[in-house]
């Protein structure tokens, strides 16, 4: 038998629909991915793109999608092709509408989710007022009899199957993701529900009637493909930068389950649960290139892939169970089984509980330490550090009393600090406006906290052998010449706040000060020095390591973990700085059990606290000022956002009391990545330079590795100060004198181009020279 000929209109409709679908998928998925990578690259360079650009991007994407979709809706001959074009046009308009929520700053997730809910609900209400349109070439009397029977039978069973399918799609996020705070999680669920209702209204309006006639393949495969493209477009407007990249493919894959079930309740359940996973299970600010290896981006990608596969599987199951009509009992059993299974996976394999951000409340009245003696030398040091600590504790105890009473009355937990007169409140942003209205509060910052992972991040290790001679960078600062004179840093303790330290590393183990007050891990509570990230082991090795890698191998060290998976927050940075002023034993109270006499002499700080971690420019000013008043030398990295002028802006690098270090390479040229001044308040920075390119130092596991960055340059200067104070103990605690000596004896370095207004904004005083500094005394 000769098959019936395919009409030109039908063939043209198929080709046109496929071409417009491919264009839409490419524009939406490709544009959103490129936009995210550009956003991440700008953050890495220290120049964050204005977040309203995402709203503009949604509008631009919507226009690019709408133009061909409108042409398809108006020019195509088959009704199903026109319905596809109309649905995609409407989805593009909804993308532009939902994109308005991106006007909210990324860090304010609760406000974003609330606005997204309102926008989606308003759009869903508007669609509800429109009547579903039957296609012009549909059979007389509206949908087929089979379709009407199927719709009636699905009245109860459809939503239950939708719940079962949605929970199957949600399952990977319940296993691999982690929820934020209670309010944020609740708002994420509410926003997902609103998006689900909106999606059901969008697909119900013209798409389902146009694809109701014909066999099951047309109803599920053809309609599901068109629905998937529409949901892809809709998903581009649901979620902040990062999570929305997961929403896109998951919602697109859910189109087949939606097409199999069709009813509003069923589609709402499928889409809402599919969207809830990325919206509630991952923090947008953690989907970042700053978290490498098997961290949040990796697990978000795995969860997304698994959810897409689950959505395809759900579509197939729904297609089978919904034909010829779904059975309510079967649907109910599947829904209950899916709910029990989802709960079991989350509680047994996932990361249950809430893991939201906190608030960092900075009080208006900061301590005045001008009356503390500035006596120098080893004998005067314990009393000086103790006086600073006692003054800070007394002032904070008195001025925080009212705020603490209020928080206790509300039943809200908190952690008080004295190095900065501040309190970390264990509550989310909902409490922020209330606290900001207090007369004793200067400002309220976010204190982000990383959500837990389903598996630990693998430990970074080095595979290079121990150097057989002093590495080039140690020789460049003159450290080996000091060793020849018998000066190795003995009698000086260097404190490091970083990702941790591999305390068993052969280059560092024998230099650990020991005792019960030389290690603190506020992130994970480890009792012995450990490091998974490797950054802290590497930087400390340059400062005090043996095996020819450290500037001051005779000095001892103490450590604190202020970075977890390469990110921190104001409270964790302050935990470590406060510990360095007055170390305390495990489980001790910093307010009562601190030991100022055990404070390290020099602090090496290869970190910065940008706005994405919750800091503003003044967040840590009182802390660095207090450490300086105590006679503790504070060395900090300039940052790796050069050669842009004005890129030296992340606290505490811009502070007057910080000795800020830029980087040079083997040829004594300023490294391109080294951040330049001036600081935001116009100060000339960095202060000095040190080697920071291809620096070989210790890595976890006993090996060695080479790294670049001002992080690598900073411990050189901490080591030089340790050598200087070891050779000239009278300088201990003399911060101003030591800084002047380092600047006066630094070797000049050519600034090159750009000069950033003054050569010092690129080179500071020049390259530090340990031998010249000691000789000059």
From TrEMBL:
Pfam families: Peptidase_S8 (PF00082)
Gene3D superfamilies hit by this protein: Peptidase S8/S53 domain
Segments forming domain Peptidase S8/S53: 489-746
Keywords associated with the record: Hydrolase, Membrane, Protease, Serine protease, Transmembrane, Transmembrane helix
Residues annotated as transmembrane: 12-33, 53-76, 83-100, 112-130, 151-175, 187-208, 220-238, 296-322, 329-349
Keyword Protease assigned: yes
Residues the record marks as active site: 498 (charge relay system), 535 (charge relay system), 711 (charge relay system)
Molecular function GO terms recorded: serine-type endopeptidase activity
Cited PROSITE patterns: SUBTILASE (PS51892), SUBTILASE_SER (PS00138)
GO biological process: proteolysis
Family designation: Belongs to the peptidase S8 family.
Protein name: Peptidase S8/S53 domain-containing protein
Organism of origin: Pilimelia terevasa
